[in-house]
TrEMBL record:
<dbReference type="InterPro" id="IPR026555">
    <property type="entry name" value="NSL3/Tex30"/>
</dbReference>
<dbReference type="InterPro" id="IPR046879">
    <property type="entry name" value="KANL3/Tex30_Abhydrolase"/>
</dbReference>
<dbReference type="InterPro" id="IPR029058">
    <property type="entry name" value="AB_hydrolase_fold"/>
</dbReference>
<dbReference type="GO" id="GO:0016787">
    <property type="term" value="F:hydrolase activity"/>
</dbReference>
<feature type="domain" description="KANL3/Tex30 alpha/beta hydrolase-like">
    <location>
        <begin position="28"/>
        <end position="213"/>
    </location>
</feature>
<keyword id="KW-0378">Hydrolase</keyword>
<dbReference type="Pfam" id="PF20408">
    <property type="entry name" value="Abhydrolase_11"/>
</dbReference>
<protein>
    <submittedName>
        <fullName>Hydrolase</fullName>
    </submittedName>
</protein>
């Protein structure tokens, strides 16, 4: 099914939603935004948008205004939060009482964690959560994970320079759990000589997300 596309007015310019409708009555709406260096066409967002609707989940991919207008670099974090709020409001007009799962990759994951409480999300999906800037582990963003207040699934590649699994606290903050993609980097790209090929890595991602959604939504 061809996804529906909707313009989203935000206080920082127009954003865009690409909505992949669930087959049948939706169990939940999964709203995902992209990272600071790419759009909604990253391999993980595409894999989820292609796979989750058949399992009863509507997937809405939100393209932030900076990306829609052709900028190369993301605008500051508060503007990303404003965009996500506008996207959630636009979705809410159509979704009604269907539960909202908020999420995204990298900067999008951070934004979802910061806004989950105010937007009434029942859970947060964090893909490649950037625990710290590259090479600066002392600048931890753990507080954003701790404030979520709802179940959280982090999906991390074990080669991610912005947050390898062993850099996270053990145990994780209450309500959080992690799925690890062996051989994955920050973009979930895998080594040719690694334990998984690219297709297998995306299959593992989708399976982990579906299992977590089944338990938490």
């Amino acid at each position: 099914m061809t996804p529906a596309r909707h313009d989203v007015e935000t206080s920082h310019g127009p954003g865009r939603l690409e909505v992949h409708e669930a087959t049948g009555e939706p169990v939940a709406v999964v709203l995902l935004s992209h990272g600071a260096g790419a759009g909604i066409d990253t391999r993980d967002l595409v894999a989820l948008a292609q796979s989750l609707p058949a399992q009863g989940y509507t997937v809405a991919l939100f393209e932030q205004p900076w990306r829609v207008t052709g900028r190369k670099v993301a605008t500051p974090p508060p503007t990303l939060d404003d965009g996500l709020r506008a996207a959630a409001a636009r979705l809410g007009e159509a979704a009604g009482a269907v539960p909202l799962v908020l999420g995204g990759r990298s900067a999008g994951a951070r934004s979802a964690l910061r806004t989950a409480g105010e937007l009434g999300a029942v859970a947060v999906l964090g893909l490649a959560f950037p625990l710290h800037p590259p090479g600066k582990p002392e600048k931890s963003r753990l507080a954003e994970l701790e404030q979520a207040g709802v179940p959280v699934l982090l999906v991390q590649g074990d080669r991610d320079p912005m947050g390898r699994p062993e850099e996270f606290p053990d145990p994780l903050p209450d309500g959080a759990e992690m799925a690890v993609l062996p051989g994955g980097d920050h973009s979930f790209g895998v080594l040719k000589s690694g334990p998984l090929d690219q297709a297998e890595a995306m299959e593992m991602l989708v399976e982990a997300v579906l299992e977590w959604l089944a338990r938490n939504v």
